[in-house]
Amino acid sequence: MGNSLGCSASGERLVSAARDGDAVEARMLLELSPALARYSTFGGLNSPLHFAAAKGHLDIVTLLLEKGADVNVRNYCGQTALMHACRHGHWEVVQMLLLFRCNVTRADYLSGRTALHFAAHDGLVRCVRLLLADFVPSAPLEDGASSTVDGGECQTNSGSSPCSSLGLKFNESARLRYINKPADGGVTALHMAALNGHFDCMQLLIDLGANVSAVTFPYGTTANLIGNWQYSFALCSWWRKC
């Protein structure tokens, strides 16, 4: 159920407000019961933060975070609000989640996709830039990268970022590992961008160190959907375009 508020009427009202963009209703409910910010729907389908992020309701996302919503909360698929915002191209929501130090390296349970995979799939360059702007990993990556900050990666469009103001250092090697982090079947963010013809996104990822030689696994759970010949064709097309 997720918490003791599992089936509360107020919690369901907050879910509806977050989904529909009703900031007045959301604020009223949270002022009456701030604990609703951490409400979880029955079965862990989605939290109010997931709904607001997916719909691009920045004011409600901000309100929920200020009232104590868990910025890294997962739904039953293991997806975070950041993944939902990246999937739908809501870069302002992505920026707000990053300011609240969300963890960008998390992967979902279904196929091991990160927020970067979701953004690259639809060629959402602005979201990709935000995810990779200032990279300070919050937790060790699979190959043993060291932890430097608790809570996640934080970055903005401006010259100074929250990470910089905290005295945290940009970690290029960690960013490279994140860019090339494979989902199931060995699928990287560059595969996603190439297979869908998003050349601007491909160029950005390659400029930032994406491995153009990465290949999918022959028997991975998603490999059957992605043939290497398609990736090669898209990559060759990108080089010709350049």
UniProtKB/TrEMBL annotation:
Coiled coil: none annotated. It catalyses: S-ubiquitinyl-[E2 ubiquitin-conjugating enzyme]-L-cysteine + [acceptor protein]-L-lysine = [E2 ubiquitin-conjugating enzyme]-L-cysteine + N(6)-ubiquitinyl-[acceptor protein]-L-lysine. ANK repeats lie at residues 44-76, 77-109, 111-132, 185-217. GO terms for molecular function: ubiquitin protein ligase activity; zinc ion binding. It is an enzyme of class 2 (transferase). Its EC number is 2.3.2.27. It comes from the Eukaryota. Keywords: ANK repeat, Metal-binding, Repeat, Transferase, Ubl conjugation pathway, Zinc, Zinc-finger. SUPFAM superfamilies: Ankyrin repeat. Pathway: Protein modification; protein ubiquitination. This is RING-type E3 ubiquitin transferase. It comes from Oryza sativa subsp. japonica. The lineage of its organism: Eukaryota, Viridiplantae, Streptophyta, Embryophyta, Tracheophyta.
